[in-house]
Amino acid sequence: MFRKNTQPPTPESDQPLAASADRHLLYQHSVQDVEAEIDFIEQTWSELRARPAVFLREDFCGTANTACEWVKRDDEHHAVGVDLDMDVLNWGRAHNLASLDPEQFERIELLHEDVVHTRPGLVDIILAMNFSYYLFLDRESLREYFAAALDGLVSDGILFLDAYGGFEAPMVLEEPRECEDEDGNEFTYIWEQAAFNPIDSCMTCNIHFEFPDNSRLDKAFSYHWRLWTLPEIREILYEAGFSQVDIYWEGTDEDKNEGNGIYTPSEIGDADPGWVCYIVAQP
Ligand SMILES: C[S@@+](CC[C@H](N)C(=O)[O-])C[C@H]1O[C@@H](n2cnc3c(N)ncnc32)[C@H](O)[C@@H]1O
């Protein structure tokens, strides 16, 4: 027998904050800085090329936040985002693309495809950010992706990647960081390196979110990927056919003894506990 529920509905304010949280919004507010990313790309492109870049492909685009930033920057900019996950693409359409003006919206397209097999037409720039290509676990599949990216570029196009490392990167640890959403609501982003296997360099990482009422979104995102080293990535890019691969290393703010947000081509980096850099690969 079903019993009629006599409990009054719980007022929304009594719900734990985690229950109404949107993991994609939290991700965008804690992990991504698409303005800084596109600043770097525009600056670097203008240093390397005498013509403006127009067509950008965002591989592993997720919510296509970076692709949206590209079309907002200039009336001439066009973008295509590629991702395997239809749910995340739909979220991006409903939120990020829906907030573009109609003219910007005309200049962006999302494809539910594998980055290795997609052929949306040649572009000036391909970017693969937040280490997504670490999802390829062996040299052969990583080389296949890089070769496909090279095939997707015009002759003077550029592939932009990021990479992370440092002596804390293979450690099992949790790293909390305080964040805010666009309405000033505070939450804690927790990056967890849950497991690392030194034999194959593969690791499992999770992102958790915690709220001021102590409720949590556990494993909001999980990744099983390989912690590639910069020499490996460079070698594989050259094997895939790129002719110049530069590492853009972050400078140091000497007063604060921390990164200054300025990345320049470098052959010597610091042995920091944790670093993030850009890789710029040219055909
Ligand atoms: C770490 S997220 C990156 C999101 C976004 N690029 C960023 O900068 O934050 C990885 C994304 O890659 C997608 N993905 C994984 N393998 C893929 C593949 N072979 N082709 C296309 N997308 C893939 C996943 O669906 C997921 O949305």
Task: List the uncertain runs.
Answer: 1-11
Structural class label: alpha/beta
How do the strands of the widest beta sheet line up side by side? 3-2-1-4-5-12-10-11
CATH architecture of the largest domain: 3-Layer(aba) Sandwich
Strand content: 35-45%
Helix count equals 8
Number of domains: 2
Estimate percent helicity: 25-40%
CATH topology of the largest domain: Rossmann fold
In the CATH hierarchy, what is the superfamily of the largest domain? Vaccinia Virus protein VP39
Structure description:
By secondary structure, the protein is of the alpha/beta class. The protein folds into two domains: 23-165 and 227-282, 3-Layer(aba) Sandwich (Rossmann fold); 173-225. Helices cover 27% and strands 36% of the residues. It has eight helices and twelve strands. The strands form two sheets. Strands 3-2-1-4-5-12-10-11 form an eight-stranded mixed beta sheet. Strands 6-7-8-9 form a four-stranded antiparallel beta sheet. It is globular. The relative contact order is 0.15. Mean pLDDT is 94; it is low at 1-11. S-adenosylmethionine binds at residues 31-32, 60-62, 82-85, 88, 114-116, 129-130, 132, 135.
